[in-house]
Amino acid sequence: MSDLRDRYGIQAVLLLSMAIWGLNVTIVKQLTNSLDPTMIAMLRMLVASATLTTIWLIRRPVLARLDRRQWMGLAACAFLMVYMNQILFTEGMVRTTATNGALIMALSPLASGIIAAIAFGERLGPVRLLGVLLGFVGVAIIILGHAGANLAEMGMGDLLVVAGILSFSSGGAFIQGIARRLDALTISGIIYVMGAMMLIAHTGLWGPGYGGALPGSAWIWFLIIFSGSVSTAIVNLIWNNAIARIGVARAAVFLYWVPVFGGAFAALLLDEHLGWNHLVGLVAVMAGTYLGTRTRNPV
Asked: What's the pTM?
C-alpha cells in the first residue's frame, strides 16, 4: 500500500509540473516578442544553472566519485537535453507553424517509450502502447479541432522540432542509467551548468551580437527568472527524479499534459476560446495517462 501511495504521489507532482511547463509555453511565447530565441535560451539556462547550483550548495548531497564514463554520460545529457534541444526547438519554431509544433511535441511520450525500449529492453506492452496512442489522439483532437487549425506541408522547421524531441528523449534515457549511481539534484545541476556553458560558447562562436540585445524591461527579466528557475530548474529536477523512480517511458506519458495545460492558460491569459474538442481531448489524455502508467500489480 505504501508503494501505491508513493506511485500516486509521484504522479500528482508530475501533473503539477506539467501545469507549470504548460504555463511556461505562454511565458516563452511572450518573451519571443521582445528577445531573440537564442538569447532567451541562453538566459533561461543560466538562471536554471544558478538555481540548481544554489539548491545543491544548500542541501550538499553526498557527491560520489565520478569516473570518466559517468562524466561522459552527463556531458551527453547536457548536449542532448539542454544544448541541442534548445537550439533545435527554438530554430524549428521560427520556421514552422504553432499547430505543427504543438502536434509534434505530442510525439515525446512515444519517442521516449521507443527509446527506453531500445536502450533498456523495456516492454511497452499492448496496454501501455494503447495509452501512448490514446494520449496522442487526445492532443491531436485538442489542436486540430481549433478553428482555423491546419497542418502545413512538413518542412525544415518541422524536422528541426522532431529532432529536438528526439534529442530530449534520448537524454532522458541516459539519465535513467546514470540515476542508478547519482541523485537527481546532482545530475540536474551538472547537466544544466554544462548545457548553459555550451549555449554561451555557441553564442560566442557566432559573434557577440548573434543572440541579440539583453532585455531592458523589469517584467521581461521577471519572466526569464521565473521560466529559468521554476519552470526549467525545479521542474526538471522533479522530472529527472521521476525518471529515476518510475522510468523514462512511464514519466514521458505525462508530457501529453503540457499542450493541454498550455491551451488552458492561453484561454485564461489570452482570452482564447475553448470548445468541445478540448473536453474530448482532455478525456482522451486522462485515459491515455492512466493506461500508459499502469503497472501489472498496483498494490
From this structure: 0.71
Question: Which amino acid belongs to residue 244?
Answer: A
**Cα(263)–Cα(68) distance, rounded to whole angstroms?**
43
Question: What pLDDT was estimated at residue 29?
Answer: 75
pLDDT, the chain, mean: 75
Q: Say how far apart CA 177 and CA 10 lie, in whole Å.
A: 19
The CA distances from residue 19 to 16, 152, 231, 259, 274, in Å, are 5, 28, 10, 9, 17
Comparing 146 with 60, the larger pLDDT belongs to 60
139 CB-near residues (< 8 Å, 6+ apart): 102, 103, 106, 256, 259, 260, 281, 285
Torsion angle (degrees, nearest 10) of CA 174, 180, 186, 187 = 10
As given in the structure block, the three cell numbers for residue 161 are 522540432
Q: Which candidate, 10, 159, 177, 162, places its Cα nearest to that of 77? A: 177
Task: Encode pLDDT of 164-198 as tens digits.
Answer: 888 888 887 777 667 666 777 778 888 889 999 99
List phi, psi (to 5°) of 72. Answer: -65, -40
In tens, the pLDDT along 186-237 reads 788 888 899 999 988 887 766 445 455 666 788 899 999 999 999 888 987 8
